[in-house]
Design brief:
heterodimer; A: 269 residues; mainly alpha; globular; B: 449 residues; alpha/beta; four-stranded antiparallel beta sheet; elongated
């Protein structure tokens, strides 16, 4: 029930952000949207704490619980941008991702996993936490990048309508995107390293054919690609935003493809 | 209830700038003028609002043509020799219209640029100046005090509850808005000005207010570039050195009188030692245009000409005009509220007389009682007196409250007549109009005795 309340609050917050966009960022809707967004994240956190307290296991194992936690990490990213005035509007692009994760998690059932006993220990918890942080870093860069591309387009096309008014300045979006990328770029290798160490310690060897290992390695290369897009000559800010959007789409599509086709993907988020 | 309130003055709607600038008052000058005005036409309360778009005097109680003449005499020495008569440029509003006018002014609805925010501060300043003037009775007395407090509150409500102040409504502020949408904070950003025109300087001033620091000026006439650069603590460069200046700035502002583009795509490309990493904003307000439109095709260049800026201004004006009905509704509501408050003042002399009569009866009856009860000790006498006073207050409380309520809801004239009839109030005190007793404190009346 608390997870459902969090989802409904996310939905309410999203509706408020859309209303603010439609009203051309006029009125006091922005504050209400930020408050409801913050409340949704807090309720989501409470739901996960309740899961931990009730089942005496962290919600990291099993698709439903893990997806909900991944969504919550996205919520934490929202909490970072909410106090940043105009930058809080990045929530419009990030909230759908968080809502999808929470919605799917609820659909699958946020329940304790029978495999929970196999996945324990500080190393495992840190591995999953860093991995989630890494992916949500890229999700934040994706959200900021999407808004950057729209605002860039509006400015170039000299369209000064609702999107122009609503979307934060290019420089702000660039800073948020850069922050997300750095968080992801640092967290993901740590997650990979800890995961490798945990697997070797508990299972004896690392299976490179494991879909989630493949996915994680591919994700890291995507990060590398996005970072390389920031270097070199020319419009690096624009290129970086574009790379973050494309990179995130590649990661999501790869995940879905692996989830559907790869064998042994039952434990894979 | 006829309100003897008036506003007399000139505004951008009645007088051209040549007249308005002559009639502008500095703070000290305004204070002297108010004192002189009170002496000359006997007003109790007055506030003088002087901005670049208006000089208006609010008077209470106003005495018809005499007040207009007094204000005209006050303004005449400043106007000096003008074409026609000063009276031709003066406007005046009375009673409710004066209230409505002030509420419109404080909300920015009467401004040259609808919804401008500066006027709110100017109204506050005019009110504060009158209120703090060391004269007795205060220049902003009970009526103007209430009126201006309400005007400021109306202005705040209109601004926060409608979109009347949304967006920028001048070319300079739109340029700032565009720059903010690209760079976020403008603190530390650098701007290159091509040409030394007035509009260009206005935009640079607006950018400087937002924190733009480095100003580089290039002009065909180098001396003018030096002048402009000095005014903005910037740097002047010869016009043929603009290629070197462009990579060092974030914003380029073009306003030369050149008949052909001075900034082409090849110049912009060549001016970068390497392709640009951060965006460059180019604002071209020159006609004919200074910048080749192809420059806008460069990926990190955002190019806007004067038509683009005007398009944004028009859009903002359209949004502001759309908010007018809501703003007018707020103003109307508050005008009616003020009217009701003022009407409630008429009841004050009647209440005062009711109380006076009650006190007289109480004292007479107590005296008669004490004459026949000489055995009472001082403590008992005091108790009886207290009882009589409490009884009097309780008996008067409900009629007084209902009378006020009736006045506030607009149907009080008959009530006042009825009370006068019932209490036999026909003397001068009860017939006095509010302007004859303008310093009545309603709360004091209620708590009195």
């Amino acid at each position: 029930v608390i997870h459902l309340a969090a989802l409904l609050l996310y939905l309410g917050a999203f509706v408020l952000w859309v209303s603010l966009l439609l009203k051309g960022a006029r009125g006091r809707m922005g504050r209400a949207a930020a408050v409801v967004t913050g409340l949704a994240v807090l309720v989501h956190g409470a739901a996960l704490l309740d899961f931990w307290r009730t089942h005496a296991e962290l919600p990291l194992v099993g698709p439903g619980a893990a997806l909900s936690t991944l969504g919550f990490v996205g919520g934490l990213a929202l909490l970072v941008v909410l106090p940043m005035k105009e930058a809080a509007r990045v929530a419009l692009a990030l909230l759908p991702f968080v809502m999808i994760l929470q919605g799917v998690a609820l659909g699958l059932g946020i329940e304790p996993s029978p495999f929970a006993l196999d996945f324990q220990g500080t190393g495992f918890v840190l591995h999953v936490s860093f991995a989630f942080l890494g992916y949500q870093g890229l999700a934040l860069a994706f959200a900021a990048g999407t808004l950057y591309l729209i605002q860039h387009h509006e400015l170039k096309e000299k369209r000064f309508g609702r999107f122009f008014v609503f979307i934060p300045p290019l420089a702000t979006l660039e800073r948020i995107g850069r922050f997300g990328l750095w968080v992801g770029f640092v967290s993901l290798p740590l997650a990979l390293g800890l995961g490798w160490a945990w697997t070797v310690q508990n299972r004896g060897s690392l299976e490179f054919a494991d879909p989630k290992v493949l996915w994680a390695i591919m994700s890291w290369f995507v990060f590398l690609g996005v970072f390389l897009a920031r270097r070199g000559r020319g419009s690096t800010e624009y290129r970086s935003a574009l790379a973050a959007v494309v990179g995130f789409a590649v990661i999501i599509c790869t995940y879905l493809a692996l989830r559907v086709t790869a064998s042994g993907s039952g434990l894979f988020l | 209830v006829t309100m003897p309130l008036a506003v007399v003055g000139v505004s951008h709607a009645t007088a051209p700038v040549e007249i308005r600038e002559r009639l502008a008052f500095g703070p000290a000058e305004a204070e002297r003028a108010l004192v002189a005005l009170r002496k000359e036409c006997g007003v109790n309360e007055a506030v003088l609002l002087s901005t670049c778009n208006r000089t208006e005097v609010y008077l209470f109680p106003a005495r018809g043509q005499r007040s207009i003449d007094a204000v005209e005499r006050m303004l005449a020495p400043k106007a000096g020799a003008i074409e026609g008569h000063l009276r031709d440029y003066l406007f005046h509003e009375w009673g409710d219209s004066a209230v409505h006018h002030l509420f419109q002014v404080s909300s920015g609805l009467d401004s040259m640029v609808t919804g401008e925010a500066e006027i709110q501060g100017q109204v506050r300043e005019a009110y504060r100046r009158a209120a703090e003037l060391p004269v007795a009775p205060p220049m902003a007395g009970p009526v103007l005090n209430r009126l201006f407090q309400m005007a400021l509150s109306v202005g705040g409500r209109v601004r926060s509850e409608t979109s009347i102040g949304e967006g920028s409504a001048s070319v300079a502020s739109v340029a700032v808005e565009l720059a903010r949408k690209i760079f976020g904070s403008l603190k530390g950003k650098r701007v290159l000005i091509l040409g030394a025109g007035t509009t260009g300087e206005l935009i640079v001033s607006a950018l400087a207010r937002e924190g733009v620091e480095g100003v580089v000026v290039a002009n065909r006439t180098y001396d003018r570039a030096v002048d402009l650069a000095r005014r903005h603590r910037g740097l002047a460069v010869p016009f043929d050195r603009i290629r070197e200046a462009i990579p060092t700035v974030d914003i380029v502002l073009c306003s030369t009188a050149a008949p052909h583009p001075v900034l082409t795509r090849s110049i912009v490309r060549e001016s970068f030692s390497e392709p640009r990493r951060h965006p460059l904003l180019i604002i071209d307000i020159a006609v004919p245009r200074d910048v080749d439109p192809a420059v806008g095709d460069e990926p990190e260049v955002f190019l806007y000409n004067v038509d683009d800026l005007r398009k944004i201004v028009d859009e903002h004006v359209r949004v502001r005009e759309g908010a007018l009905p809501d703003a007018q509704h707020i103003i109307r509501t508050h005008s009616e509220e003020f009217q009701a408050w003022y009407a409630s003042l008429e009841v004050v002399p009647v209440i005062r007389e009711m109380r006076r009569q009650a006190v007289a009866v109480r004292e007479a009856e107590l005296e008669r009682l004490f004459r026949g009860m000489t055995h009472l000790d001082p403590r008992d006498r005091e108790r009886v007196e207290e009882f009589a006073q409490r009884l009097q207050n309780k008996l008067l409380h409900d009629p007084t409250a209902q009378l006020r309520k009736g006045m506030a809801s607009g149907g009080g004239a008959e009530l006042v007549e009825a009370v006068r009839f019932l209490y036999g109030i026909r003397d001068a005190a009860a017939d006095a109009t509010p302007e004859q007793a303008p310093h009545v404190d309603l709360e004091e009346e209620e708590n009195g005795e």
